[in-house]
Amino acid sequence: MSKKIDVDKQVAEARAGSRRATARLLTALESDSEQVPHITAATAGGNAKVIGLTGSPGVGKSTLTSALISAWRAQGLRVAVLAVDPSSPFSGGAILGDRVRMADHALDDGVYIRSVATRGHLGGLAATTGASVRLLEGLGFDVVIVETVGVGQAEVEIASLADTTLLLLAPGMGDAIQAVKAGVVEIADVYVVNKADRPGADATVRDMRAMMSLVRREAGEWRQPIVKTQAEDAGGIDELTAEIDNHREWLIKHDRLAAMRRHRAWAEIRAAVDDRLRHHYRVGDDLAAQLADGDIDVYAAVRKVLDD
Ligand code: GDP
Questions:
Q1: Whose CA is closest to atom 24 on ligand 1?
Q2: Cα distance between residue 249 and residue 54, in whole Å
Q3: Would the pTM of this model clear 0.90, i.e. be above it?
Q4: Which of 104, 117, 258, 294 is least buried, going by the fewest C-beta atoms within 10 A?
């Protein structure tokens, strides 16, 4: 159980740009503190663009994130980043990538960056990260980037949290094939071939095009663009942010954004209900004995769990 914080004061400070207050609130949220309902009530609402960013280690996720932050800051938007490492047991700490990114934005109150560990968390990756995204929205961030390492199930889960998911590739890493295998190609909305300055970038774009031509798509579905970037010197970033905006407009025009958000909200409610029920498991032990001994029936046991 974490230390109690003054929730209303921290929320006010976080909204005014205090990264420390934002960090405290996220920590309380993650640590399953009894203050969670107060925190969620005080931060309900908000409306951020949620951007998923995924790709293998070394493709340039941190560098690209930093470039995207700069582009959105230039538009006056407040930007938060959750760097999710599904294999890490630590939380709130600074991984190397964070330090790289922080260096560029360390003095900017409009930017908040945090690494999120998910191993061992109750409720699963998407549920815990989803709650953090919602909190950041409620604190007034205009863009929340959820970045994940590697290619696999974790990415697919994280993509379900994002309005727009970017799959980042780099030349010569064999990523295109891997991404297809892991099903990440289907969940990405925009493909980004980073390190466009390196030989082989055009070949990677061609591979992706060829791959996409094999995927069957219904008429009227979103057609994923492929954007070449050179994250280190912000090359292609304007085109990338424009494609992200295009995708968002497409989602709105086709009534997808609201539907996706409702779907996510329902998943969040289910996760919270599961969580609440977990607190009843000790009661459940007792009830199981009573049910096994024939002292009560199963629905009487259910009523006891839910009324408790
Ligand atoms: P991550 O592991 O996916 O977060 O990748 P990083 O952002 O840490 O980048 C990995 C390496 O690629 C670093 O040495 C970056 O400087 C380098 N890098 C990133 N973007 C580019 C680029 O556009 N061109 C080149 N040549 N190198 C890049």
A1: 195
A2: 22
A3: no
A4: 294
Cα dist. 51→10, 48, 81, 245, 247 in Å? 26, 9, 9, 11, 11
| Ligand 1 binding site (Cβ under 6 Å of any ligand atom) | 55, 57-63, 97, 194-195, 197-198, 230-232
Q: Which CATH number fits domain 45-254: 3.60.20.10, 3.30.460.10, 3.40.50.11810, 3.40.50.300?
A: 3.40.50.300
How do the pLDDT tens digits run along the chain, 308 residues long? 557 899 999 999 999 999 999 999 999 988 867 899 999 999 998 899 999 998 888 889 999 999 999 999 999 999 999 988 766 554 444 454 555 555 778 789 999 998 876 655 444 566 678 889 999 999 999 999 999 876 566 667 777 889 999 999 999 766 666 666 666 677 889 999 999 999 999 998 998 888 888 777 777 889 999 999 999 999 999 999 999 999 999 999 999 999 999 988 888 888 778 777 776 666 667 888 899 999 999 999 888 877 76
229 C-alpha vs ligand 1 centroid, how far in Å?
11
The crossing angle, in degrees rounded to 10, of helices 61-74 and 96-105 is 20
Helix (H) / strand (E) element for 84: namely strand 79-85
Contacts of 32 (CB under 8 A, 6+ apart): 1, 122
Of 227, 232, 239, best ligand 1 pocket probe by most atoms within 8 Å of the beta carbon:
232
Distinct helix (H) and strand (E) counts, the chain:
14, 7
* Ligand 1: centre distance to CA 137 (Å): 28
> Domain-by-domain residue ranges, the chain?
1-42, 45-254, 268-307
3-state secondary structure 46-59: CCCEEEEEEECCCC
